[in-house]
Amino acid sequence: MYQSKAARRMAVFALLAASLAAGSAMAQDKKWKSHMSTDEPDKLYRHYCAVCHGPDGDGQTQARFALDPAPRNFTNAKAREELSRDHMLQTLLKGTLTKDGKRTAMISWKDHLSPEQMETLVDYIIVRFMGGRPADNVHDHNDPRHKGHDHSNAKKVDYPYGLKPDAARGKTVYTASCQSCHGANGDGKGTDQRVAQIKPRNFNDQDFRDYATGFSLFSTVSNGRGHMPSWDKSMSNQDIADVSEYVLRTYVTRKPLTAAK
Ligand code: HEC
Ligand code: HEC
Asked: Which homologous superfamily is 162-252 in?
């Protein structure tokens, strides 16, 4: 097909303009550079955070010798007292400053990570390193660490990674994978031969009922504890959320499996 030189040039210009416009819309809309998937939170954490905070979240890295302040240890009681989910999200968005207003090694990640990636990373820290128990929301803006934080969009989240659990499905998971140890009535007297020796948790205990939340159950079931196996290799995050919600409703909040929260 014949095209005049001018027409061809017009076509090339149009293409160029369109791709530039698309490019700049993308740059405005998604300034971050990373496109790593949020489906594998551990990979995301290892890629961006572990170099300073350590694979086990305890901050015991070589980087700590060069940094003042040193990277946070997420695993101690102090972290569970001070770091709420919102505060950590705001930290990722804004970075932190020293008392005299200088930037620390904890930079703002907003040009590098998407909002979804930031939420995933914070949830990963809570599940993996904080036993599913972050600080309650801290809204004290006089605390210098919260200066400039905006909690106006802060939402309460019961489960990590945006999961919406289905307790009725969780019952099936419980029967298949948990009942042999924890028992049909959650009393820790299942049919597994090791039960007398390893003492699975009795979910009817008051101290368990006082303490358990969706996030804390999700965390224990994922990571395991003592003689309790970890399930994150053999189950999907959805299965873990479902079975956690089943245990929560059956023994803690004692709500019907299918009714709204
Ligand atoms: C280059 C080193 C470095 C990297 C990489 C890094 N951090 Fe940090 N992080 C720090 C330091 C240093 C602090 C302590 C800052 C302070 O005390 O003000 C910190 C503190 C934090 C805190 C606590 C903030 C507070 O108010 O105490 C959180 C949450 C955090 N980092 C999350 C992350 C996440 C998630 C990543 C991965 C995206 C990450 N960090 C990557 C160095 C780093
Ligand atoms: C091999 C036996 C065994 C199986 C199977 C098992 N658990 Fe456990 N579980 C244990 C033991 C033992 C403990 C007590 C661990 C400890 O605290 O030392 C425990 C503790 C727990 C806790 C901790 C409660 C607390 O103190 O906060 C939860 C939650 C839990 N199990 C849930 C589950 C769920 C859900 C499943 C099924 C996906 C499951 N367990 C399967 C043995 C088992």
From this structure: Cytochrome c-like domain (1.10.760.10)
